[in-house]
Amino acid sequence: MEKHYNIFIFFVMILFVGCNPDLDYEPHGYEQKIIVEGYIANNEYAKVYLSLNNPTWRKIDSVSILKSVIRTAKVTVSDGETTEVLTSSWEHTHFPPYIYKSTELKGEEGKTYFLKVEYSGHTVTSQTTIPYSTPIESLDISIPQQDNAADTLRTLSATFNIDNSRHCSYRFFCKRIKDTGYYETPFLFNSELNLNGHQTVTVMSKNSNGLFALGDTVMLRFVTIDSTSTQFFKDIATGLTQIQSERLNTLKSNISEPGFGIWCGEGVRNYWVVIF
């Protein structure tokens, strides 16, 4: 199932070192990084996107971003029993459009998965555990409160229960049939990991008013992530000053050096909703 994450487009555009065929540790005194964006969800194949970071002093455009994509790495995922070398190919629903993907190994809730990336004589590693997914207990379709809202528009909200002892947070992605990719409701729910009990979230659509039209068929992807991934995505959302000042040491990453990024286990529940 395609996703509309693409958080790493921002990374590739502004991270702080030169882009060369091999890792370069000396230009302008900075270190080049292997940027990893990897996900494994229950009942889904592992997906990993790799790139080298670009310098802030270079012109950043689609051509330079494509040149930074790593297409010759060996990427391995293991659950401790089964190990698979991922297959690489172009994936045009994501930018940069190159993916390493498992074809046999699928994620299972509660299991730990180990990632290894070998590139240009360097190896970066990580591990993640897929949290148990969280069910949506109810979906509510309502007439919006805005005075200028059309009679044919609706809001969509989801109610679910947070078990504070799990130390998880949640991401909402939705896609209408006519959309080309998933759109994330623009916040990380429970980013402080301190909420407990029933919570209700308004899901946002991918249009200027954030509402849904009567008759829309909506695919809703409700993702549970652990505290490590929570801190990473929270830092990305709030850490623009550190990134722009070319300092990443304050941003959380579960990728070993000389890498940076995230290997994220996702507990996923998928829903279909028709707006009426």
Detailed description of the structure:
This protein has 276 residues and is mainly beta. The protein has 2 domains: 8-131 and 225-267, no CATH class; 136-223, Immunoglobulin-like. It is built from 4 helices and 16 strands. An 8-stranded mixed beta sheet has the order 5-6-2-1-16-15-11-12. Strands 4-3-7-8 form a 4-stranded antiparallel beta sheet, with no helix packed on it. A hairpin with a 3-residue loop joins strand 1 and strand 2. The two termini are 25 Å apart. The relative contact order is 0.20.
Q: Strand content of the residues, in percent? A: 35-45%
* Estimated structural class: mainly beta
Parts with pLDDT < 50 across at least 5 consecutive residues: 1-5, 9-21, 24-30, 240-247
What Rg, in angstroms, do the CA atoms define? 19 Å
Q: Provide the domain count.
A: 2
**Main beta sheet: strand number and arrangement?**
8 strands, mixed
* Order of SSEs: HEEHEEEEEEEEEEEEEHHE
- Helix content estimate: 10-25%
How many separate helices?
4
Mean pLDDT: 85
**Rough shape?**
globular
The total count of strands amounts to: 16
Strand order of the largest sheet: 5-6-2-1-16-15-11-12
What's the N-to-C terminus distance? 25 Å
